[in-house]
Amino acid sequence: MDRVLEILGLLVGLLYLYWEYKADWRMWIASVVMPAISLFVYWNAGLYADFGIDIYYLLIAIYGFWVWRRTSPPALSVKEGPGDDVPPVERGERAITSTPLKTWPLLGLAFLAIYLGIAYVLIHFTDSTVPWWDALNTALSIVAMWMLARKWVEQWLVWLVVDAISTGLYIYKGIPFYAILYAIYTVIAWFGYRKWLRQMRES
User: Fold this and answer.
1) pLDDT along the chain (203 residues), means of 10
2) The predicted structure's pLDDT at residue 2
């Protein structure tokens, strides 16, 4: 049964990745389905931090969907000259932007606090054999998911690190199909970053 769930998770994960690469809001649908599947896989593998983060993923998926699909209220007309009204500019989906500089220190502090907190719990309250790596991956994932929900382009770089660590963890834990999935993620993360960067500059 675990292998079936792994394969299903792999397929949903690839669909998620395709939509994320395209900056398509439908990725948030896949981001609800995949954690629901992964909860069983991670628990059985003893990856308790990954299990816990899936609950966060389900919640942030709802937030991300709302942020990405939110539209601003209609803008007011601007007077250019006598009798000349410029029509309001309609805005659709949230635009891709760069992470604000003032946000980086806050993200760093949040990462450190989450990392140490999760590592403490894993070491003292679970039988995890990879507490520090599991905690590192989970803390980075929490930060990256928040950045993705805000549609910040640098989220791809954080995911690149997460995916590389995940590939090694899943090989070590004997979860081959997820190892394949995250190896693909690692490669695509770089191309996704370049594509989003291009889209951001063009818009």
Assistant:
1) 72 80 81 78 78 80 81 40 42 80 96 95 89 92 92 95 94 87 89 92 82
2) 62
* DSSP letters for 37-98: HHHHHHHHHT-HHHHHHHHHHHHHHHHHHHHHH--PPPPPPEEEETTEEEPPPP--SPPPBP
Q: Is the pTM of this model over 0.85?
A: no
Instruction: Retrieve residue 18's tokens.
Output: 């395709």
What's the gap between Cα 100 and its chain centre?
A: 18
Distance CA 192, CA 169 (A): 23
What is the DSSP code string of 96-108? PBPPPTTHHHHHH
Number of domain units in the chain: 1
**Positive or negative CA dihedral for 168, 173, 174, 175?**
negative
**Is position 79 within any domain?**
no
DSSP reduced 3-state for 152? strand
Query: Which domain range does residue 138 map to?
Result: 2-71+96-202
Q: Is residue 87 part of a domain?
A: no
Is residue 80 situated within a structural domain? no
> What is the C-alpha to C-alpha distance for residues 193 and 171, in angstroms, rounded to an integer?
25
